Amino acid sequence: MSDCLFCKIIAGEIPSSKVYEDDVCYAFNDIDPQAPTHFLVIPKQHIDSAAALTESDAALLGHIYAVIADLCRQLGVAENGYRVVTNVGADGGQSVKHLHFHVLGGEKLPV
Ligand code: 5GP
Ligand code: ZN
Prior knowledge:
There is one protein chain. Strands 1-2-3-5-4 form a 5-stranded antiparallel beta sheet, with helices on one face. By secondary structure, it is of the alpha+beta class. The N and C termini lie far apart (35 Å). 26% of the residues lie in helices and 23% in strands. The model has no long low-confidence stretch (mean pLDDT 98).
């Protein structure tokens, strides 16, 4: 989607601190980290939010969660634990309308 910030990041039109990339997803550090480890994982395909997901996205979601688990092991936050969050819509606090999973860790997170 041409006017989407995260599509521009995937395309390299806006710089980002890349953590991981493969054919279907891209992971990069959040510009305003809320924890010592805070990165975002996004599908390369534009999807507005988790509210737009269907059964046909099952493989994509399984892949994204497997990538998150691998990255958290590599980054050393898997043992103590971490949080995966996706905000949906205005009340959910979603500011970028491209599906993204926040991954937060590296400290005891507030409940
Ligand atoms: P949301 O509020 O939609 O759940 O999360 C959007 C996230 O994207 C926020 O945590 C925000 O800090 C991050 N963000 C917004 N613009 C940029 C950017 O240009 N680069 C990076 N790396 N993160 C961004
Ligand atoms: Zn997009």
